[in-house]
Design a protein that fits this description.
- This is NAD(P)-binding domain-containing protein.
- InterPro entries: Gfo/Idh/MocA-like_OxRdtase_N (IPR000683), GFO_IDH_MocA-like_dom (IPR055170), NAD(P)-bd_dom_sf (IPR036291).
- It contains 11 helices and 16 strands.
- The protein is of the alpha/beta class and 361 residues long.
- It folds into 2 domains: 128 residues, Rossmann fold; 194 residues, Dihydrodipicolinate Reductase, domain 2, CATH 3.30.360.
């Protein structure tokens, strides 16, 4: 009840398409409320408000600065192009606004470190917008993955994230422009693959990263499709991922252990909002004469009270309220998770730029 009486008040910097989903998530979360939206013009912000049937109580601003100067705003969601993240995330932190930042978080880990330092110095919470971390399915998969008797040691991980956008995407979308979102498919889709792989490895950084020679670039030199190999020398673990704007919709993650394995087809966006599943197998073997298996995959289904986007906002708002009420400091774990992903993202980009040379981390 206290959460509903004293919700975290959000401001949004920019009217990107993803902001529509986060507006809905803020509305669905019991401990948050949308207080203000902004764009580079008041007219565009008003159009966004009308299109999304926002309450008349939501303030509409024609500049991002106005949101940051609004003393009623507790936290900001920033869905701006990656090239603008450093400027606006640092300014938000300096204005004591908690920062929910869309991925990829920055153009390189140096920029992200400056963002994280600003958040730490100003005592504000940081989190990136990777929503799948907050689905209860993710926690259940982690339980099984962490059970040495059921899963054993992680040996191999595979992930893919791909989709084919309409033709106009390749001409107009910021994700195809080197000066706006220079990572292209790597930053947009590959961020999820990298995050899932590191999640399976408890966020331990790999030894080497190598982009395979089959990378496709557009005329701006932006990655449209790439395949990557990642290796942990000490563990002997290998991961591969494929991210692309040129292949049919995929959101797969498979993790193979010494005793078990699991596979999820819809990691990033579940097929359904109210429940999600994954397939798990432990102790599988071939029957006599290898004519079949001794078992089939088990489907594990998890039901969730809220969509994963709202669960993300709910958790972020819980942390913000804890800071506001002086019960706790910012949870730096989320910044650490983002940083490991950014380090690997940077390594992949360096490998691509060098003609597929192996990059050591």
């Amino acid at each position: 009840m206290d959460d509903e009486k004293n919700p975290v008040r959000f401001g949004i910097l920019g009217c990107a398409e993803i902001a529509r989903k986060v507006c809905r998530a803020i509305d669905l979360s019991p401990n948050s409320i949308l207080h203000a939206i902004s764009s580079r013009s008041t007219g565009k912000a008003k159009q966004f408000a009308i299109k999304n049937s926002l309450s008349e109580l939501v303030k509409v601003y024609g500049s991002y600065e106005e949101v940051l100067d609004d003393s009623s705003v507790d936290a900001v969601y920033i869905p701006l192009p990656t090239s603008l993240h450093l400027k606006w995330a640092v300014l938000a932190a300096e204005k004591k606004k908690h920062v929910l930042l869309e991925k990829p978080t920055a153009l390189d880990v140096g920029e992200l470190d400056r963002i994280l330092e600003a958040c730490e110095c100003n005592g504000v919470q940081f989190m990136d917008g990777s929503m799948w971390y907050h689905h209860p399915r993710t926690a259940r998969m982690k339980e099984l993955l962490s059970d040495p008797n059921l899963f054993g040691e992680v040996r191999m991980i595979y992930s893919s994230s791909s989709f084919v956008p309409p033709p106009e995407f390749f001409e107009n979308n910021i994700r195809t422009k080197a000066d706006l979102d220079g990572f292209g498919a790597l930053g947009d889709a590959g961020w999820y693959c990298i995050g899932a792989i590191l999640w399976a490895m408890n966020y331990k950084l790999p030894t080497t990263v190598t982009a395979l020679p089959a990378t496709t670039l557009n005329s701006n030199g932006v990655i449209m499709s790439t395949t990557v190999s990642i290796h942990w020398e000490q563990e002997g673990t290998v991961a591969t991922f494929y991210c692309s704007f040129l292949a049919h919709e995929t959101m797969d993650v498979s993790v193979l252990g010494s005793k078990g394995s699991f596979h999820v087809e819809d990691l990033i966006i579940p097929y359904e909002e109210s429940s999600a599943s994954f397939n798990f197998t432990s102790g599988a073997s071939f029957v006599d004469l290898h004519l079949g298996w001794n078992m089939t995959e088990q489907e594990v289904r998890i039901h969730n009270e809220l969509p994963q986007e709202a669960l993300m906002v709910k958790e972020f708002s819980r942390l913000v309220k804890g800071i506001k009420d002086s019960r706790m400091g910012p949870d730096t774990r989320w910044g650490g998770i983002s940083r490991t992903s950014q380090v690997v993202l940077d390594a992949v980009k360096a490998s691509v730029d060098s003609g597929s040379k192996t990059v050591y981390i």
